[in-house]
Amino acid sequence: MLDAFSILTEGGIVLWSRTFVPISSRIINSLICDKFIESHSGDKSFTKDSYSVKYELANELGLIFVVVYQSLLQLSFIDDLLENVKRMFLKLYGTELKKNKGPLPECKFDYYFDKKLEELEEFGRIRPTPVTKVDALPTPEQKYEENHTNSVELTPTQALERLRLRHSAPRRGGRRGGSRKISPFESPAQSSGDEAIKPGKKPAKKMRKWAVDGAMQDEDDDNKPLDFSEGNTSSINTSSANQMVDHSREWGSTTNGEFVLKDLGEDDDFTASILDATADDKTIESFGFFKSFIGGKQISTESLQPALEKMREHLMKKNVAKGIADHLCESVEKILIDQKTGNFQTIKNKVRQTMQDSLRRILTPGSTIDVLREIRQVRRELRPFAISFVGVNGVGKSTNLSKVAFFLLQNKLKILIAACDTFRSGAVEQLRVHVSNLKELTEREGGRIELFDRGYGKDAATIAKDAVDFATKEDFDVVLIDTAGRRHSDQRLMGSLEKFASLAKPDLILMVAEALVGTDSVAQAQNFNNALGTNRRLDGFVISKCDTVGDMVGTMISMVADVYGSEETGR
Ligand SMILES: Nc1nc2c(ncn2[C@@H]2O[C@H](COP(=O)(O)OP(=O)(O)OP(=O)(O)O)[C@@H](O)[C@H]2O)c(=O)[nH]1
């Protein structure tokens, strides 16, 4: 979920860094310029482009700890991470850095960092920090008193807060803190010893362990169900779906009684619009890179290179992966080389047409997906058609599953939604709300939609298979399977996808990916594709959150080109 974490000296030397997604050096540069050179505000966070940047200082050694992540993400553990990483790093390398302020050739900090990150992420997923109204918050003094009189179980944030307050609060006699050594892996709550959790008080809750297949692994006697969804349906407000929707709006056109969506093939302007989106107004207006090619000259490879280089950079800024940008530039080069330039208009049109043709070839699927026709075919075998949605955390799997459900309900199909995200708390309830709203919206159309859930902590592949069996018995037409979000680099969770694919045997596996994810999209798609095993691959992509990226729509070109390959790219 993070994009990068770096530890720098104030002089700009990178002592250690971890990059999950390549980010522009502009982000760190703007930290140095905006925060340390131009402004000296106390706020240790800012946003740049679509990124949030937070940092911590270790003034005694002149170190800066910086974390970069997508602004859209609400990551509750960032402050804890910065604080913990700073503490661990100073503990491990502080003495060495006091002697020598230069780089650390033997810096093997990855292991400690990964472990802490994993720990905090896991903790944040299971126990999200509650939101409290600002005016309901106690004053620092009240909080200090409260923390010292009540026996409460602390979240990492609360523990840190307690530690800060303890050190900032006026001394009331007695010893402040202790001199006990702190291991780099201890959280402040643990390390604060007598300050955080007193003997005889409720012990800190252990983190839940998860098995490789996604099922909950009971630790000690922890057999308590993680499912809090039962009996909670009454609190879900489902009465407003119809009021929220504008019924005067046309939802789509109907041909032969089918509710259909516009197909890529029917839209002649689609690739042109992608092209327009991957270029900005100025580029489209003039194809400025090729301005110098005017008037009856022979175009050579050398003369073309500067323009192609600019075009490549431009495409990459629009989120097109480098390999694909290279390829698009090569296509343009092939067309133009050794040609005699006509007037500027001719060059511009040629480049534009070449790019448009290349994009069309990349985006045209090798085999068409006519879902309604495929559903009808599968129904002849007296079984339901199963579609599963996979992807990293928070990309919009449940939201897009619900949009697909709406489309299928318009076609009067009977839908069973299988809640197979047994991991994230709230995932089942979220689907229940969608189902309830969809029922209300489509009850007049004659479709049917139900939720199949088995709560939390159970094996997702088995639930998916049970849902398909149930749908077969109950004569549902389609099963839509929601799955848990997983980081594509997380081998443990990715490993369970192969079992999922072979047990549930979905007819269609769609990967949901955010348009804003940038060049990491290619690695994400490849890892998901590979994780399905040798006998299965992704059938397609749903690119979500296009509304958040404006014209940076290159992600969809990169993902399709890289995973499916095409004659166009030769992959
Ligand atoms: N702006 C925008 N937000 C979206 C879009 N699709 C989904 N979201 C939002 O993204 C957030 C996550 O969506 P979910 O559907 O819960 O994502 P998910 O992949 O199921 O999440 P996990 O189960 O946690 O992995 C929600 O707040 C959605 O409202 C979209 O197309 N545009």
UniProtKB/TrEMBL annotation:
Topology relative to the membrane: Peripheral membrane protein
Keyword DNA damage part of the UniProt annotation: no
SUPFAM superfamilies: Domain of the SRP/SRP receptor G-proteins (SSF47364), P-loop containing nucleoside triphosphate hydrolases (SSF52540), SNARE-like (SSF64356)
Keyword Membrane set for record: yes
GO cellular component labels: signal recognition particle receptor complex
Extent of Basic residues compositional bias: 164-179, 199-209
Protein name as catalogued: Signal recognition particle receptor subunit alpha homolog
